[in-house]
Design a protein that fits this description.
The chain is of the alpha/beta class and 460 residues long. Helix 1 packs parallel to helix 4, helix 3 packs antiparallel against helix 4 and helix 3 crosses helix 7. The protein starts with 5 loop residues before the first strand and ends in a 14-residue tail after the last helix. The protein is 33% helix and 22% strand. The strands form 5 sheets. Strands 1, 2, 3, 4, 5, 6 and 16 form a 7-stranded mixed beta sheet that branches. It has a 5-stranded antiparallel beta sheet with strand order 17-18-21-20-19, with helices on both faces. Strands 10-9-8-14 form a 4-stranded parallel beta sheet. The protein folds into 3 domains: 202 residues, 3-Layer(bba) Sandwich (FAD/NAD(P)-binding domain); 111 residues, FAD/NAD(P)-binding domain (3-Layer(bba) Sandwich), CATH 3.50.50; 106 residues, Enolase-like, domain 1, CATH 3.30.390. It binds NADPH dihydro-nicotinamide-adenine-dinucleotide phosphate. NADPH dihydro-nicotinamide-adenine-dinucleotide phosphate binds next to helix 7 and strand 17.
Length: 460
């Protein structure tokens, strides 16, 4: 046992920090955790969880529209935003409590206040108390960034505020072309808002497979989203009640809300890290080695604050592996291979493994299998929508190196596909698996036609 007050002090009670603290305490370490806002961090409070609940809320729009083709008479006469927000808040309060109990059960001391490093082994709490720790974990996550254009900081909101809007905005401008922007566009469109989404380059979701990007760019306008590429906001004014959003071409849009979803930055300011000798990258991320160790050997960092893979399950696994390594006698890392991810757009995107441009770069010759079809549910509904499924195979080994889907249930399907890929499945393994009929998922095992002459996807 060390002479310090704690063996392990975790700054940040989000996905990575909570898991690491809980496991360390279960391994017998005297552990404390400080959280200044809300237990569960971004994911539980202003991220994955409320977002998914609001996606569910918005998906009723499709169900109501489809219902007539199946013989139902439905009158979707109204949606009550305040009921949705109140119910969502109640669920989040339940989760906050669950996180607290999960920390308290193995004996973690919780400080519900801001903490910073006073020196490399001393943590100063907002109430002035000082405690010492042998090892320290920085798990403070990230925060939405807002650019400096005129009027943006005054009049636009980020994802943090979106989840607490007192009323649903009727006309919304969304700036950005990443995960959050397309997810929010789908939510607000489904709930009945007029949505304009702006992206600064040719095609959004940069880094994703080109077929995924194109498929979603075709689908969103079919639902009434006004998708504008090569478009940015130059200024926002609020002369009266409405927001005036001026675009680079000179056009002015009137809006009730402007939401910026233009990336997140690691939250490392004011933590005393530099003074303690912790090296940060240009983006402000804590620089760590494979063992999540910073430039100060007893200070570690996991999750969004290391700016590696900003996904909740990754942060959780990193925090867990670190606690096992430091206190469980089980030194281990985690695998970053084949991490499945989804964008809960409408329809959703689900991907695992490499995008086509990455597969070509890494493997040289690849076989591309792709299909597009109208999902069965849309047939009687008469809805104009297409599902896209794509499999990328390394020609030399025949191993499946990337799977992508844009279509309903994609995220539920791709999780299982990720297991197969982690087992090293070949295309022949996919092919000998009998399909489950009738589903969209069966296309992953029945897809036989190679794209004849695949045009190389753009580099990014
Ligand atoms: P992303 O990094 O995904 O996307 C940022 C977007 O904003 C890009 O389209 C980028 O364009 C654009 N952008 C950046 N700066 C500007 C600017 N100054 N003006 C206009 N546009 C700009 O960020 P998000 O905020 O959407 O999400 C943050 C992270 O959170 C994600 O990367 C993801 O890891 C995680 N997340 C995961 C989710 C999930 O798993 N479903 C859901 C939500 C978030 P460009 O392409 O040109 O750089």
């Amino acid at each position: 046992m060390s002479d310090y007050d704690y063996d392990y002090f975790v700054i940040g009670g989000g996905s990575g920090g909570v898991r690491s603290a809980r496991i360390a305490a279960a391994h017998g370490a005297r552990t404390a955790l400080a959280e200044e806002r809300y237990l569960g961090g971004t994911c539980v409070n202003v991220g994955c969880v409320p977002k998914k609940l609001m996606v569910f809320a918005s998906q009723f729009a499709d169900a109501f529209r489809d219902a007539a083709g199946y013989g139902w008479t439905v009158d979707p006469s109204g949606h009550d935003w305040s009921t949705l927000i109140a119910n969502k808040d109640r669920e989040i309060a339940r989760l906050n409590d669950a996180y607290r109990r999960n920390l308290e059960a193995p004996g973690v001391t919780i400080y519900e206040q801001r903490a910073r490093l006073a020196d490399p082994h001393t943590i100063e709490l907002a109430d002035g108390r000082r405690v010492t720790a042998d090892r320290i974990l920085i798990a403070t996550g990230g925060w939405p960034q807002m650019p400096d254009q005129p009027g943006v900081r005054e009049h636009a909101i980020s994802s943090n505020e979106f989840f607490h809007l007192p009323a649903m905005p009727r006309r919304v401008v969304i700036a950005g072309g990443g995960y959050i922007a397309v997810e929010f566009a789908g939510i607000l469109n489904g709930l009945g808002a007029e949505v304009t989404q702006l992206y600064r380059r040719d095609l959004f979701l940069r880094g994703f497979d080109m077929d995924v990007r194109q498929a979603l760019a075709e689908e969103m306008p079919k639902r009434g989203i006004d998708l504008r590429f090569n478009t940015v906001v130059t200024r926002i004014d609020k002369p009266g009640g409405d927001l005036q959003v001026t675009l680079n071409g000179g056009e002015v849009l009137m809006a009730d809300a402007v939401i910026y979803a233009v990336g997140r930055r690691p939250l490392t300011e004011g933590l005393g890290l530099e003074a303690a000798g912790v090296a940060l990258s240009d983006s402000g991320a804590v620089i760590v080695d494979e063992g999540y160790r910073s430039s100060v050997p007893h200070i570690f960092a996991v999750g969004d604050v290391i700016d590696r893979v900003a996904l909740t399950p990754v942060a959780i696994n990193e925090g867990h592996a670190l606690a096992d390594t430091l206190f469980g006698g089980n030194p281990r890392g985690i695998s970053y291979q084949n991490i499945p991810s989804a964008v809960f757009s409408q329809p959703p995107v689900a991907s695992v493994g490499l995008a086509e441009h990455e597969a070509r770069r890494k493997h040289g010759e690849i076989d591309v299998y792709r299909t597009r079809f109208r999902p069965m549910r849309a047939t009687l509904a008469g809805r104009d929508t297409q599902t896209m499924i794509k499999i990328l195979v390394d020609r030399a080994t025949q191993k499946v190196v990337g799977c992508h889907m844009v279509g309903d249930d994609g995220p539920e399907i791709i999780q299982g596909v990720a297991i197969a890929m982690n087992l090293g499945a070949t295309k022949a393994d996919f092919d000998r698996t009998i399909g489950l009929h009738p589903t969209a998922a069966e296309e992953f095992v029945t897809l036989r036609t190679k794209v004849a002459d695949p045009v190389e996807a753009a580099a990014e």
